[in-house]
Each structure stands twice: as C-alpha cells, then as structure tokens.
Amino acid sequence: MRAVRASPRGGLLLLDLPHGANGALRERGARARAGPPTAAAAASAVRRAQAIPQTALGADCAGASVLPDLWPALAEKYGEQLALQDLRRKPREALTYAEVAREVRRSAAALDLLGLKKGEAVGVFAENGARWLLFDQAVMACGGATAVRGAGAPAEELGYILDNSQARGLAVEDWATLERLRTELPAERLKFVVVLWGGLPDGVVEGAALGEDGSGPPVHSAAALAEIGRALEAAKGPFRAASPPLPDDLATLVYTSGTTGNPKGVMLTHDNLMYQVGTLEEVVRPQPGDRSISMLPPWHIYERATGYFALARGTHVHFSNVQHLRDDLQEVQPELFVTVPLVLDALYNRVMGTVRKEPKRLKRALVLGFLAVSARYVQALRVLRGLSLDPQRATLGSRLWAAIVVALLGAIHRLADVIAYKKIREAVAVRQTIVSGGGSIGTHLDDFFEAIGIEVVNGWGLTETSPVLAARRSGFHNERPGAGDNVRGTIGHPLRGTSVRVVDPDSLQELPDGQPGLVLASGPGVMQGYCGDEAATAAAFRAGDGWFDTGDLGYRVPARAHSHAEGNLVLVGRAKDTIVLTNGENIEPQPIEDACVKSVLIKHIVVVGQDRKHLGALVQVDADALKLREEEEGHKLGEAELQGLILSEISENNEGRTRYKRDERVLKVALLPEDLSYESGTLTRTMKVRKSIVAERFGTLVDAMYQR
Hints:
By secondary structure, the chain is an alpha/beta fold.
C-alpha cells in the first residue's frame, strides 16, 4: 500500500481544490438528462407524455419534485420525530427528520466545497446504514448522481464502475475497502474520497492526499465531512446548490448483476424515483410514526425506492442485516417489513422447525393440524370470494361448495388463531404488512402467512423500472379496498401511470388475456437507458414506442364469471430460463421451483433439462431441516436415501400445482456439494439463485445425474 501523507492543500476548512467541471462528464450528464439516443429517446418522450403530477396521485411527496427537496419539507412536517436508526453500526446512530435534513444539507455543502458539480457522478461502495442515505442525498443535493455497488464486490468490478460512470468522487464502507480498491482508483480524476464508517487509521490526517507524492484526492471520514459542512453553515448560512437538480436529471446509476461480462449501469432520474415515492402508497400506506426495518442492500433499487417512500410517509426506519434480523425484528416489531421471498421462506422454516421440535407430541400434532385446516380454510375462502386463479373453481358450484367448507372450518380456524397463531405472530414480530419483492412467492408461503394472520403483498419490477411496475395491494389504511386487491398467486395490477402488454416473444404481437407471453412495460418508472451502452439500450427497447422488454413471461388473468381476479398479472418465468426438452416441449422452471421449496429440506433448487428427455433438479439441502429430520428418523440419512426423500417431496409438491403438466415431472435429483452464496457468485445480494451460473458450474454433476 502506498503511503498517505498530509496534502499541502489539506485541512478541514482551508481546502483549495479545483472547481472546474469535467467537460466529458458534463456532456455525459447532459445526454442522461435528455435521454440516450435512438430507442431510449423514444422511451423518454413516452415517459414525459405519461407523467402524472405528484399532487394528482394524492401521494405525500411533501411538495417535492426531486429527492433532495423531500428532506427540508419532511423536517418541517415531522421535526423531532425519529427517522433513521442504525441497529448494528457503531456508533448506533439515531436521527430525527430535522437532523436528517440538517446533515444532508451540511454534507452537500462540504461536497460542493470539495468540487462536486452538477452532472458529475460519485461512486458509493458501501452497505446499508444511515450514513449511506445521508451521503447519497448530499450528492444529489449538489446535482450529482451516485454510482452504487456493494463494498464486497470484486475490486475489478468496482474499478469498472468508476470508469463507466466517470466518477469524480468516491465513498467507501471503511478503510479496508479503500485499501482493496487502491490499484483500481482513477486518482487523477477523483476530487475526494470519503470513508463512511470506522474513521481513518492512526497516522492518517483528515484531508490527507492519497499517493506518495501528495497528488491524489483528499480523504475524509464521514464525521469530518459533517464538520466541514457545519463550519461552512456557521460561516455562510444554509447550503443552496448553485444549479439544483431538475426532475429529468440523472439521480443514480444502479449496476445490474450480469452473469457474464461487466454489469450494466442503469440510468435513473429524479422523475423515475419520485414516481415510486408518489405511487407506492397504492400498495401499502404506513402511517407517521410506524416502524419499518431495512435489511436489504441499499444499492439495490428495490430497497432504495421503498426506503425513500417509507421516509416520505413519516416512518421510523431501522437499519438491520441478515445476520441479526431475527433479534432486530423482535426489538423493533415493525408495522412494515420490506423483504425478499427467501427471507419469507426462512421465517416459515423457522416456525415449522420450532413446531416440529416441540417435545409434546399432542401439542405438536395439534399445531400442525391447525395449520393444515387453516390452509384449506383460506384456499376455500379465496374461491368463495372469487379470488382463485384456477378456472375450474370460478364456477357457481365451486363457490357454493367453498361456502360449506368455510362454514365447517371457520370455527376451527378461529380457535387456532387464539391457541396458536397469536404466538406465531409474536415470534415473526411483524405487526401489519410484509412487502415482498425481487422474486415470486411460493404458494405455501401465501397460504401460511394468510392462515396465521400476517398480511403479505407482493410486487414486481426490475432495476430498469426503478423498480416497481405492479403489486398486490394492502388492506391496511385502504379507504377503498377492492375485492381483487391482494390476489394470492399473482403480482397484482400495474401501478397508476404504468402500462403493461403481454406479447408473443418473437412477433411482439399482443396476446389475449390468459395466454402467457413476454411482458413489456412503459411508464414514468422506466429508465433512460444503460450508461455508455447504446446497443444494450436499443435491445431493451426493441419493441419501440418506449416499451421496455422486461424479459419476464406472464399473463393477465382473464375475465370470468364469479371471479374478481381479472386483470391481475401472473408471472410464469424468465424468457432466458425457458427449458426446451428433446420432445420440443417448452418448460418454465420457475413455477416448479416455487412449488418445490415448500419442502423444508430444500433451501435452493434449480430445475434443469435443456435438450434432455425429462427434467432434473439440483438441490441445496437445508442443513437445519436435515438435522431435525435425522433426529426424527433416528439415524443419519445416506445420500441415496436423502435423494429419494427429496425427490418424493418434489413430486408431491410439483404435481399438486394447478397448471401442472406431465412433461413438467422432475425425475432426477442431485445434491449440491456446496452452499450457494453471494460470495461464490451463485446468489445475488437479494438472495436469488443465478441459475445459469449454477447450471454451468455444476455441469459435471448434471451429466452424472442423467447418467444414473
């Protein structure tokens, strides 16, 4: 590591840094604001035509049209009410709405002094916490854009992001992250480096320059940056940007997790993000003072958009992480919990594991029996209310039979709520609503959480759509609930202002409701394009007229008599994941995988079978569930016995699906020899399986499985 010494230009206040804007990056920023050429230019024009005034949405955007304007307005409205709290950082910071606005303003003043100009990008490579949000908003308050990624990403990838975004500044998680990045830093281009947590090591002076010759950018801790801003405010008054951001200005570059090659930088504007802030109240309506938990990566747009929205509603956001989520849920007991399906599955498995470990057989059998009855009850209730997706149950006869089942099982379900479900809800510790995104929810999870009385709504979208396109709606604080607001098995209706089409993947001709096809989307949330990649942008908008190719396959629920599910969207998989068997049958693996993870023994599953006679599956076994099963069986399960057990459960859950077809049978199983993880590249940071990477990495295992 090269030496760091004090810069003659350093110091907390006596900073004499270049203030000239980089011409090339200014030009890039101008292109971003106008929209990329060709296909993306058309998309931008469509967005402007579709733009909805925030006031027309009835949303609480506090009169703001760009993100940085939220904070002074919210400070005036909520003042000393708590806004942010770090549960697992040291120090364990807590900030009120007034303090958030003040710290954003002061940090923006410091960044302005350090030379940050409108249209310039700043790399932010760090994990979740209050300081991340404050820095993110300070950059935007200066008219800049944050280029974001996690601190644990490979150094080469982070270096690529700094180059692709032409970043003029950098914020990192801690000093160790900075050391790891040292060889990738464009020191001649960077105006500053900020270390968000942990401060600077002994012997390194605040404002010291990186590099042996003192020519590198000055480095500051987050605390020093705040102190610079405080002193500037005392001397000059509250900061006001010379060129504040406009709604169509670039707000952030979010880099997608590519399976091959470099990640693509998705360009999102203030308009894109404020659209989410203004419309997500259709999905869920937290009240001022409600508590929420933030545990997903902040550089994932799902976490950021829902976080901005929650704060705009006056909630108290608590920052947690996966390792401490269980304890933090118990401490906070949030009204709102935003998460991903794998966490829901973990909560479900934890409850079921606790029940199965109950030493008293009668009590164990009683709770398992209650859950089975309640699952049947909620399924019948959906049929009675016209919310079943099975067309065979959308008949008058089916609804009459469902009414009988509901009447017979209702008393048992209510008794179960008093005896068992109240305690289960206390263990899960979410008081009102779980919002799940980033993947589909298994039917068993929808049944379980509805049965125990915890509301789950599911949303769908992509990084390129900032992200939410459609979602099921919560019943809490909903003044005009609709019968089809939260149809299980779907991802709900499009948000207001967003349009969705289902088309043939090849001809792009629109398909009738009920027929699966490629889903296209258009609306105010759709990105401007990919940074510096016009070819990828053109491919994403290949349908023309601003329609974005989501890559997802799905269908709209058609109108039927005795049904209220009409118009809800159902996803069946990803176009790139479609498996073609040797008989020519096209198989979508996602519904199969969603059904199979009902087995507590299966932590992850990847269905394979491209150019094979039949389907197989790669399975990561849940170690805790396996240990419990072996205790129940009284012996250690051998590999062959375990494979047979898992294959039996896969067959039962898969063949019980509503739309099951014979060609979708899974006839072979192989157990993965190692756990899937983000570090190994087999999981995304939102814990979705990277199927193509898993299939390729374990190709030899797949071949051996089919040879058995």
